Amino acid sequence: MVYTGVDACRTGWFAVMLGEGHDWRADIFPDIFNLWKHCQDSKLILIDIPIGLRQGSSVQRVCDQKARRLLGSKRSSSVFPVPCREVIHADTEKANELNWKITGKGLSRQSLNIINKIKQVDELLLGDRNARSRILETHPELCFWALNGGMPMKYSKKKKEGFLEKMEVLRSIYPCSGELVRYAEKSYPRGELARDDILDALVAAVTASNGGQGLSFLPEKLILDAKGLPMRMAYYLR
């Protein structure tokens, strides 16, 4: 499998792996280190998790600001506030209080729920230069925006209309999308893997396989955090 898309799910990380033709695989991994062990032969891994974190600063990441503007009022809320690095290594119960103290802003429930996932990826990339060269941040709504010709999705991913809308985009560029989604839904209970997790990982994999070396980034100019990790989101403008 050459290109991989990854999304966090209740039981770990859900990965969609695509080959050069119509070969594909899909699996859940308990942590990011286990996923990297199984997927490190991929040319490119796009993951829906913040990479590159603020440290001792109240300034928001430029990629988050630009993504919200592109997605417009209906979809911008899908870009969650990103905790600073000090927060992800602190006591989870004090995360919101600490983020307020350092950045002047609180964290949403969605952001608080993925702090441990952000920490996993941060530790992996800081400790493994090879992983750093192949794992890039993306955002599913940005991917759909780009694959849809620069138009944000009309409906929420939690609604039936949103699922059908996104499946139409995915099928138009990757014909095996329906087969892959049916397999994932049949293989994993909804308590382990939500339907929108499947679509988010799949659109990241489709973006990786079509983008290759032709990916675009928000922002265009590379910005590094204090540890040298890039603060940018990858997408493929169809």
What features would you describe in this structure?
By secondary structure, the protein is of the alpha/beta class. The protein has one domain. It is 46% helix and 14% strand. It has helices at residues 32-39, 62-75, 85-88, 95-103, 109-113, 115-127, 129-134, 140-147, 160-173, 177-187, 195-211; strands spanning 3-9, 12-18, 24-29, 44-47, 135-137, 216-218, 233-235. The strands form 2 sheets. Strands 3-2-1-4-5 form a 5-stranded mixed sheet, with helices on both faces. A hairpin with a 2-residue loop joins strand 1 and strand 2 (12-18). Helix 8 crosses helix 11, helix 9 (160-173) packs parallel to helix 11 (195-211) and helix 10 (177-187) packs antiparallel against helix 11. It is globular.
- How many whole angstroms does the radius of gyration measure? 17 Å
Major sheet description: 5 strands, mixed
In angstroms, what separates the terminal alpha carbons? 22 Å
- Order of strands across the main sheet: 3-2-1-4-5
- Note the overall shape: globular
Poorly predicted sequence stretches spanning 5 or more consecutive residues: none
Number of helices: 11
Task: Give the class from helix and strand content and strand pairing.
Answer: alpha/beta
How helix-rich are the residues, as a percent range?
40-55%
Count of folded domains: 1
Order of helices and strands: EEEHEHHHHHHEHHHHEE
Mean pLDDT comes to: 94
Strand content: 5-15%
Number of DSSP E strands: 7
